[in-house]
Amino acid sequence: MNLYPIYKWLVYIPGLGLITLVNFLGVMLVAPFSPRLASRWFAGMWARELLYLVPARLSVYGEENLPLNPSYIVVANHLSLMDIPILYGWLDLDLKWVMKKELRKVPLIGSGCAMLGHIFIDRSNREVALKQLQDVKRDLEPGVSILFFPEGSRSRDGTLKKFKNGAFLMAKDLDLPILPITLTHVDTILPPDGMDLRPGSAEMIIHPPIGVEEVRNSSTEQLRDRAREIIATRLDK
């Protein structure tokens, strides 16, 4: 008999609500003084607790490829809604992610993300989206990294989709290195569609960055294809 659905409804979902509320209150108290501390203390804790409570296990490889305190354009494949807590909870970066504007309406999470400086983009209007990204470039502080899912949406079958150019244009505009991340098996914990949560194990592989010199000397398309090639190498294993 599978007892996990009982655990999910009686333990995980109430626990998720409590964790979200407690950490949202922490963000509200700290973010007006230091969004960076609020992000690492409370939002990072929230992200890790989401995975621990499943319960699920994450193996992280390549942490030696992440020097302290630089800014990056972070690009990762997208398998599940659980990708964001994994990246946010285990990457030791002051990380802002680019998300669709509809997530701004999610109770607590949307408001908390806005206070922490995450970036809401109107994907339905290209001109508005470009202006929003221009504003991001203008306001970006040193030491902040920006997360993109260059596929644009979650992969429904686990295969790596074609990458869009936005992340790589921004890397060139901001003169920042690109940090490719491969996520595997996250969709076995939470599938790309629905809420069929289940215990499991996932992996996050931090690849060596594509350095600033290569970013400067490569076209947007070359950077896009290079990052996709790096991420795909660990999906094939």
The CATH homologous superfamily corresponds to: Glycerol-3-phosphate (1)-acyltransferase
Q: Which percent bin holds the helix content? A: 40-55%
Strand order of the largest sheet: 1-7-6-2-5-3-4
Distance between the termini: 33 Å
State which percent range the strand residues make up: 15-25%
* Poorly predicted ranges: none
User: Strand count, sense and closure of the main sheet?
Assistant: 7 strands, mixed
Please state the structural category: alpha/beta
Name of the CATH first level: Alpha Beta
Spatial extent as radius of gyration: 17 Å
CATH fold naming? Glycerol-3-phosphate (1)-acyltransferase
Bulk shape: globular
- Tally the helices: 8
Mean pLDDT: 88
How many domains make up the 3D coordinates? 1
How does CATH name the architecture? 3-Layer(aba) Sandwich
